[in-house]
Amino acid sequence: MTLRVLGVDPGLTRCGIGVVDVERNRRATMVAVGVVGTSPEETIDRRLLVIAEAIDEWLELHKPDVMAVERVFSQLNVSTVMGVAQASGVVIAAAARRGIPVALHTPSEVKAAVTGSGGANKDAVTKLITKILRLDAPPKPADAADALALAVTHAWRAGSGAAAATTGPGSNALTPAQRAWAEAEAKARRGR
Amino acid sequence: MTLRVLGVDPGLTRCGIGVVDVERNRRATMVAVGVVGTSPEETIDRRLLVIAEAIDEWLELHKPDVMAVERVFSQLNVSTVMGVAQASGVVIAAAARRGIPVALHTPSEVKAAVTGSGGANKDAVTKLITKILRLDAPPKPADAADALALAVTHAWRAGSGAAAATTGPGSNALTPAQRAWAEAEAKARRGR
């Protein structure tokens, strides 16, 4: 079976979106990648509307099993982090409206999953996601690469989490996304 | 003519919502007030969905001319401010989807408009909004009172802004909400 993950690196000026299909053996294939941009000269309501409509289109077109969103931290300046949080709210609500589970991952988790080191730099993430997805050229801009890396990270982490949980009493500790993976796995087994 | 404003004091745990009708002579009347609450034990996607659906219902039922939302600042701790920003993003996008203009006001602006002092405390705001709206008892909780105060603040500020702008070249500086008020005023004058 394949898990389709839509990754989002939220932002008002550039919101990276990437869709990957990840197989049980961890092989990941890019389905689509893009960036939604809005101008700082636009009003906040207009900017959030553009992002909301774009996410709706991506969810409608690609029908992901789960959405992975970068967890927002305050390492940025205050006005930037507000916009990122507002955009992430809109994106998460769009998935929730469709009953698509949402998982949040920190930048460190993404770096660790993709490069093996939580302290890796952005270039290393871009380089390795290009290799993981067998792409001819690095996805640009960096927000697009980050969205793909988030999606792959989620599938790899959810897969191992679900595998661990099926053998013990820890299934209550699963995130909705991990439950989705575990249920999809169970369904695939029944269908064999 | 009357301007109907839906005010929102955004938050994940308690999101205050208030609707007021404000006449040209600044007389304000409460139409509805309420609070949408979500539990911190719920997942973020579930919490944002509950808020999104509630706002949709309020917009559908009350059909405001404009939405006024409290501008989020970082005076709170980081995790709280993130949730507030995410909720505000969802609320603003809901209005934008319906073509309803959105205006942001700071807590100081609300205090100044309602009490005459930007440094007033919350109790003073609640007390005065109760008097302004001729209510028998103070709206509870504080988030509900804040939402009503935001709505009144917006109408009063937009009204004076529009009045000033019609006499000078400053109309380009109007917010969308102020333009909505100015246009509604012009329409009302033509209709007489």
UniProtKB/TrEMBL annotation, chains A, B:
The active site is at 9, 70, 143. Residues 162-181 have a biased composition (Low complexity). It catalyses: Endonucleolytic cleavage at a junction such as a reciprocal single-stranded crossover between two homologous DNA duplexes (Holliday junction). Its EC number is 3.1.21.10. CDD domains: RuvC. It is found in: Cytoplasm. The keyword Cytoplasm applies. PROSITE patterns: RUVC. Residues 182-192 have a biased composition (Basic and acidic residues). It comes from the Bacteria. GO terms for biological process: DNA recombination; DNA repair. Its cofactor is Mg(2+). Binds 2 Mg(2+) ion per subunit. GO terms for molecular function: crossover junction DNA endonuclease activity; DNA binding; magnesium ion binding. InterPro entries: RNaseH-like_sf, RNaseH_sf, X-over_junc_endoDNase_Mg_BS, X-over_junc_endoDNase_RuvC. Residues 162-192 are annotated as: Disordered. Pfam families: RuvC. Homodimer which binds Holliday junction (HJ) DNA. The HJ becomes 2-fold symmetrical on binding to RuvC with unstacked arms; it has a different conformation from HJ DNA in complex with RuvA. In the full resolvosome a probable DNA-RuvA(4)-RuvB(12)-RuvC(2) complex forms which resolves the HJ. Belongs to the RuvC family. The RuvA-RuvB-RuvC complex processes Holliday junction (HJ) DNA during genetic recombination and DNA repair. Endonuclease that resolves HJ intermediates. Cleaves cruciform DNA by making single-stranded nicks across the HJ at symmetrical positions within the homologous arms, yielding a 5'-phosphate and a 3'-hydroxyl group; requires a central core of homology in the junction. The consensus cleavage sequence is 5'-(A/T)TT(C/G)-3'. Cleavage occurs on the 3'-side of the TT dinucleotide at the point of strand exchange. This is Crossover junction endodeoxyribonuclease RuvC. It comes from Arthrobacter cupressi. The lineage of its organism: Bacteria, Bacillati, Actinomycetota, Actinomycetes, Micrococcales.
